[in-house]
Amino acid sequence: MDIEKLVAENKEFIREDESRKAQALEQFREWLSKHPFITNARTDDTYLVHFLRTKKYSMDDVFKVFENNLLFRTSKPEWFETTDQFLETFRELAKAGAGYMLRKRAADGSSVFVINLERLDVDKYKTKDAFAFVFNSLHAYMENEQNQILGCTFILNYVKCPLKVIGSFSIRDTVGFTESASKSAGRFKKYIIVGLPATANALLNAGKKVMTEKQRSRLFLCNDLEELSEHVDKSVLTEYLGGAEPEAEVIDNFVKVVEANFDKVKEINKFEVDMEKAAACRNLDESIGSFRTLEID
């Protein structure tokens, strides 16, 4: 895989060059310095450029997703917990194989993040722990420039998932989690769901209702792990997923990367939002998400 070539091609796609990046970052910081309801947000290049790359340097869209992201984080702080206690929970979930980032990239250069629902101990952990695990891990990996530029493929593995785990996720949680993708910095290339049982169809339908058309076009359902290999080569997947990569080594690498970047992830949470001013400036139902009760097909 020619990473440098893929990075160059993706930079061209997102309209990035050094001159445009420098000008956009200056404009971004000026906008933040005058912001009516957000203060103390991270303003370093690595953090801000991630939003620029997500929206291909279209500044109005960049500003909107930045606001929506911080408003969403304000509405669901438990999904973005970065306490020392959470870090212990993260290590336990990772070592149990509940989720990890693969060491090797997919053919399009994207990083591959996997959630193995069978391994989520819902007697010990709450859904908020699972969501914080996902969000904080992704943020840690997106401190890397190549990961920001080349994007991420997301795999949700339901194979052998017990009913107790499926039942622990509510429609409300699923809607909120799905909506968060459109309010986050990140170039998500594919959303792959493997082995979805019929008992989880209501969750899928709820999630699809709040997806954008672009997100739905990137959603793929696989009946089993053999079909998964049609999207992500077996040489990239762990042994647990029917691939060749030693899972213990993948997990060790994953934990090291997240731990190394965790202080940066914690810095994100230092922002402040004046909700009274935000309500006066924005339609918060639109920004945060209504978490409405949906009619399920």
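the 2nd protein, sequnce then structure:
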Amino acid sequence: MTRPSLGRLPATLLRTAPSVHNCHCKRLPGHDVRRIWFSTQIREQCKDLILSDETLHQVRDKMLDAIKLGLAKSTNKDASVKCFTTFVQDLPNGKERGKFLALDLGGGTNFRVLVIYLDENHFDMQSKIYAVPENIMTGSGAQLFDHIAECLANFMSENDMYNEKLPLGFTFSFPLQQVGLTKGILKTWTKGFSCSGVVGQDVVRMLEDAIRRRGDIEIEVCGILNDTTGTLMSCAWKNRNCHVGVIVGTGCNACYTERVENVEMFDGDRSKPLMIINLEWAAFGDHGELDFIMTEYDKEVDRNSINPGKQVFEKMISGMYMGEIVRQILIKFTKEKLLFDGKGSAPLSTIWRFKSKYVSEIESEKAGIHTACRTVLKKLELDHATEQDCINVRYVCECVSRRAAYLVSAGTATLINKMRIPSVTVGVDGSVYRFHPFFHDLMMEKIAQLIDKDLKFDLMLSEDGSGRGAALVAAVACRSR
């Protein structure tokens, strides 16, 4: 995947220049070499969003402490990073063969059903997206799984598989405590879901019960996994050095391969050396670990979320919240007459109205070009924005997105240092990572600065981890029988 060059970062580019209308000079990342001016006041107000290397080292060290607490049986209950055992101990070896179903329920307003045909280092795939109406997202668990079972039956009928019994890998991208490869207990809903009667229950059992209620299809659930595990598995199928999976999309999470002797919560067969650990690091900070870097904007976003006080790390990073953080900043700066001549708008004052995709769109333009920014501001009824306003809005977006990239980098560096594998590939997926123009490059640079000098790493864009990865979990489970 071709990505733009990194350019320079806000934290390293703030150079003092001759004063012009109370501004300082800064070159924005991108393609243009023109000198762009942003307000000194804006820079001063955004300084809490710019994380120094010293601060990132603290985040990295706190993350390691949290992981150790999550791995230990005596402290797991009170740990913010739960380090859930996935029961996936075998990685793909390229010898997986056959036809496998995959179900990808990852949050948002839809889910996917897939059928994947695996052959030697080759696969074919067919898939279909199904909607999850809002009344089902917030209804009962039985309604949700009955809806999924109906869509599975329709998919199998449309693809001439109605009378086949097929293995299925189930990607369930919510905080999950696995009790076995095919048994997972939902800990809490995130991403807008709040179905009743599911938290504390085995979601595989609920899916199987819904399928049995129909009585017209046969499906064997061979494994349940998080999308981070799917990302790792999908990349490992192509690259045997892949031992970390990271998601930076609507949510944010990571998994990695841990030595089984360090996984105290696992009571099963320890003859295999490794275990994929689903960190659920979105909750890092829920016990106050990140209070030292939380800004007033983070606190306001948290207060307005459906789960105040929870998923703190994720709320500083993911696509579900990034745009809202920017909006909170723009609101404050407008009230202080640092933006838009102090004149806001009803849309700007509307919660969640500034979408995270706007951040990527605004930063994707060449420096000095404001077409996308003006389009965004017009949607927010801010047609009166000046060129200086556009420059400043872009700077705010940069500060928020780079902080997100640096926090993900600190967490990823923690895992690389902990595993001590000389050269490791990190599989990464998610809309923020895919579509933000500099996220990949920012991560590459910052991880390199945060890992031990004798270690090497690379980032690999996952190809449909939540789909192909789910099918691969099922395939590896069948291979291991």
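The two ends are 36 Å apart (CA to CA). DSSP finds 16 helices and 16 strands in the chain.
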